[in-house]
Amino acid sequence: MTEANFSVVVPATTANLGPGFDSIGLALALYMTVDVEPSEAWSVSYDGDEYGSLPNGADNLIVQTVLKVAARYDKKVSTHGLRVHSDIPLGKGLGSSATAIAAGIEIADQLAGLDLTPMEKVKIGSEMEGHADNVSAALLGGVTISYYVGDSIDIVHIRKPEMGAVILVPPAALRTEESRGLLPGQLLHAEATLGSAASSVMAAAIARDDWATAGKMMEQDIFHEPYRKHLFPDFEEIRLAAKEIGAYGMTISGAGPSIFIAVKSGEEARIADQLMEKFPYYKGLAVQPSSDGAVLK
After folding, report:
1. Within the chain, which residue ranges are assigned CATH 3.30.70.890?
2. Could you tell me which residue, 4 or 47, shows the higher pLDDT?
3. Which fold has domain 6-159?
């Protein structure tokens, strides 16, 4: 068991990229930093107001993850205080809960001296999340393409995708549970086949850094976008405008309510500015992929 001052830095993530539903994640260069130091009780403080509504004691998701991971290995950890600074919009489809879980896993690994492998961390996080897309990207960085079922997980990891991204963030958050409630219980076999084909071509294109093809495929999703896009003001107009100014493709970021736009590296700021000017309801974030996942400092 360790008592020490250290920090954990975890990237934001976007998941699905359209047809890669619950299986493809991309780490983004927006970060949450958690400073850890000994304390008489578990406490969590957040810089800024956006995260102020979250629990600040042992019921906080980061702390709960630390305790669950330690208990999984019959370890106990002493109480600590956590100070959190985050650039990641809360509840906006950028993996804020997966980021918290990833941070908790890293903190537990350090405090309890678990010496977990990266894949052990991903498996634990996937069990907690119920799917592997966000948490695998948060822990490993880059692009992760995952197959997770029961006790089995397989991941293809692409550390340094050569692209950029624009995230259009609306003012209001959206609960993932609410967004998932819009999805159908089943799809026709022919529809699912088309969705699987789009996901397969997109994954292969990403592996080859062919983002023109990947962008085209991310707009062929049939698994969730058709059922959620009505929640996004000007969705189709944004897609058309993004294409006209040179974007590869556009889709929903995670479960929403943000929009993810894949662009050529170096074009992020230009495209973000132009889309914000035309669609002022959204705040445009120009970002790069994060090749690093969660790291200790």
Report:
1. 164-287
2. 47
3. Ribosomal Protein S5; domain 2 (3.30.230)
